[in-house]
Amino acid sequence: MEKIVSLCKRRGFIFPSSEIYGGFSSCYDYGPLGVEMKNNIKKLWWDEMTKKHENIVGLDSAILMSPKVWEASGHLTAGFADVLVECKKCHKRFKADELKGKKCPECGGNLTEPRRFNLMMRTFVGPVEDEASITYLRAETCQGIYMNFENVLNSMRMKIPFGICQIGKAFRNEITPRDFLYRMREFEQMEMQWFCHPKDADRFFDFWLKERLKWLESIGLKKENLKYVEVPEKERAHYARRQVDIEYKFPFGWKEIEGVHNRGDWDLSNHSKHSKKDLRYFDDQTKEKYFPFIIETSIGVDRLFFALLCDAYQEIKGGRTKTTKPTKEFEVLLKLDKRIAPVKVAILPLVKNKKELVEKAKEVYQILKSNFFCQYDEVGSIGRRYRRQDEIGTPYCVTIDFDTLKDNTVTIRDRDTMEQERVKIEELLKILKEKLEYV
Ligand code: GAP
């Protein structure tokens, strides 16, 4: 895992937050390549939900909401808390269920009895910092969806079953953040809430579970690194009647990346009770009025980003070139799905000290750069530049060489096969669009 963390920093994927001040625990910034890759992931998920599936619409609700939302949802009470013990000597806190012995693992001190610590992040809204101005940063994006259930239903004339999806930041005061992007205090979620008749909830639960697994495999996660785990009643989230965690085999073990939950009528009925607004659905055909059940699919963008990096990361002993003797200890190849890779095409003049080659390469760069996220690179030997692109997962390298000057052709090198094909510059954009599956 250290190698992936180091690659992320070195190549501009992820930086520690507030680094010049010594960092800020469990918060990370996405660098130039990281933000491209993250946006690619979010776009694929958004398209999957809103274009592939019928009857799902999007939303972007506010992070700050009335604190009443969190009272009604059960997040302010014991339901949304970690059970922790504290060392009486060094005052460090640990999750009670993760401790092996009865002493502090850091200093050997005695521990307190387990206590529950709420995970909501508090803040104040307005000029006065008193009890009345307290609110919370949202701990899950879906509450914004429930707040808008009626608005979407009416404005979009939706009929059950239908879904609302949203991507956005969520915040949790995790007491034991760890494992890089795995457990953060500020993270992003991609959530879809499927509203259905209670009698159809079990069927839709199975449907969405299968769909989500299929999607995770379709974007490049290896089948053998994914599994799902039925969560027993006593370990389920406070709102869940049924919960299945989709787990990924991280370098530090099998861990949840996505949750599929049957939330029943927990949210809509509680919000109805607290707001005194009837959020039941009226079926104008059957004349039935009822609280729809909600099947939720919820995945963390950051966890998925991390899983995709772990899955794609390969070290090739001695390097991949077969034409020369292996000289290196190993070469890194990031075999990301083309749609996820941050840089799509690298444009490389064969050498940088030949003016005509450099000029031609810059011309090619200009043709491509408004279509794909490209990198122009002229520094170092061509072999080294290919390695640099392999390390960040760039699917194609376009090389401008001496033949280019004679016949206006360039080579396209494929990251995975390392094979090169020669094409005319005038056809380059069309060919790359086809290869990259751009529509
Ligand atoms: N609305 C349901 C919900 O929030 P969850 O299982 O608590 O359910 C869903 O969270 C997903 O959000 C998780 O599967 C994970 O991918 C992501 N997630 C949760 N807490 C996280 C954290 N502290 N850091 C990074 N991702 C997190």
Outline the structure in words.
- Helix 2 (32-52) crosses helix 8 and helix 3 packs across helix 7.
- The strands form 7 sheets. A 7-stranded mixed sheet has the order 3-9-10-16-13-12-11.
- It is 30% helix and 28% strand.
- The chain contains 12 helices and 23 strands.
- The chain has helices at residues 2-10, 32-52, 67-73, 142-147, 149-155, 201-218, 266-275, 301-312, 355-369, 382-392, 402-407, 425-435; strands spanning 14-16, 28-30, 56-59, 81-86, 93-95, 115-118, 121-124, 134-137, 162-171, 186-196, 226-230, 242-250, 253-264, 281-282, 289-290, 293-300, 313-317, 330-334, 345-349, 374-376, 396-400, 409-414, 420-424.
- The protein is of the alpha+beta class and 439 residues long.
- A hairpin with a 6-residue loop joins strand 4 (81-86) and strand 5.
- The mean pLDDT is 94.
- The structure holds glycyl-adenosine-5'-phosphate.
